[in-house]
Amino acid sequence: MAHEMTEYEFDKDLTRRLHELQTPAPNYFGRWSLGHFTAFLVIFMVLLWLLANVPNRFGNPSTLHVTVVLGTLGLWRFGWWFTHALRAQVYAKTRWPGMRRRADKLWNEGWRPKRLHIQMTTYYEEPSITKRVIGSILGQIRQEKIPTTLYIGTGSAYDELIIREFLETYAQDIPDDLAELVFIRQNQPGKRMAIGLILRAICRSGASPDDLVIFMDGDALYGPDVMRKTLSMFGADPELQALTTDEEVICYGPQWIAKWLDMRFAQRRLAMQSHALSGRVLTLTGRMSVFRGQHILDEKFIRTIEADHLNHWLWGNFRFLSGDDKSTWYHLLGRGAKMTYVPDATVYTIEVIKENGLMRMVQNFRRWSGNMLRNGARAIALGPGAMPFFIWWCIVDQRLAMWTMMVSPVMAVLGSMILPGYFWNCIIWVLFSRVVLCLFLFGYSRRADMTWPFILYLNQVINASVKIYMIFHLSKQKWSNRGNQSAGGGEGLLETSKNSFAKFQLGTALSAFLMLIMMYVGLIETPFG
Fold this sequence. Notes:
By secondary structure, this protein is of the alpha/beta class. Helix content is 59%, strand content 14%. The protein contains 17 helices and twelve strands. The chain has an eight-stranded mixed β-sheet with strand order 3-2-1-4-7-6-10-5, sandwiched between helices. Strands 8-9 form a two-stranded antiparallel ribbon. A two-stranded antiparallel sheet has the order 11-12.
């Protein structure tokens, strides 16, 4: 149990945290504690002092060409970021309120889906978390009275026993015609196969194309009225094919990891609202997404989840271990399906981190970045005609950003070899720019936290580094959940040769990257004199 808590202590603490997260968020200025506001003032005053006292080397003739590149990249990256921030505000202030009013009006008039199917996978989850998750689902079934079948994919009797005992105690009042429980014991390893087995069971049950299907993880707790807030969107918009929700994280682990996750979810809120303005999202998050039944009845959709793969010139044909949410997204994206994000429906993610925090951070980046890169290339190949141009360019930008992010720190260090002290001007700029970005991000969080500017930059550098590594090792996959799966490990002469060649490619690309920058900076002569 997290932090050596007993199950009772864990459950009590989880109740407290949920209560805090479910209270209305304070206004922007109410999110600042005295300590963090003081930290902001100190950082701001230090920045002013540095600007006044550190010689400005950006305009020095010997490094002006370096400054031009850094400035151009800065204008591009921050211009793109503020475009997202502006679009997010347009969605929140102009598009979303009308969507919510229409959905609420229809729901209040009595519209309901004919049947709801919930597919959930769980694998040796903490008993307290499993009970909370099932309790949150049952609570909303009682409230909304929508005929529901809950399909739970398990790997053993462990989770089934916990759920059965909980239902025998707390679900006696729910009639069988309102809620039905179906366990699907997987006979092949991996979450993808578990989901595929559930979807095939839904098909056999006689599900209708007009039914709605919720995809969720076994550690995702429903917030208040999640079913009403999400299902009603499909009744109000016949063109809507899928949606995903807001997320909050409850982290049991190192404090800095909790802060990092809070920051990432704030970034997610901003980005999701920007994407939703174009009628698409960039992922149908596995924690909770909702689909129209017609897609679940499609054999190609099921096979995309079960056996999604990539045919790579070096790695050959290899299957994906994780990233089922990216596979379902890609399937719908290629069919021009409308998707959206529901900012007022919140699912609470419970993260229990027992291992080294930094290693968990890197492992998550490897999984997320690998999923993004494996799906990004083929999504780009669909072309801007298959989706709104803004969404297509967002996918392209994900692949460009990993390189542009690394240009700045490398050029800052090399610039200091030409003009000592140039690096410190860059540090001032990095700190100032991240403070400004975080002032916007605080609008998507519950509290202001002045550790975020530092965590944000660390997040960007590590994420870009992992992406660069992963783009040359797309077959390498490791997932600590679902039995600690891994792939692309390099067993045998052929796989060892492939991994060696991938490392050679990575080394060559990084060497060329560094050499081109050094040539531009002027630390080495170009072959053209």
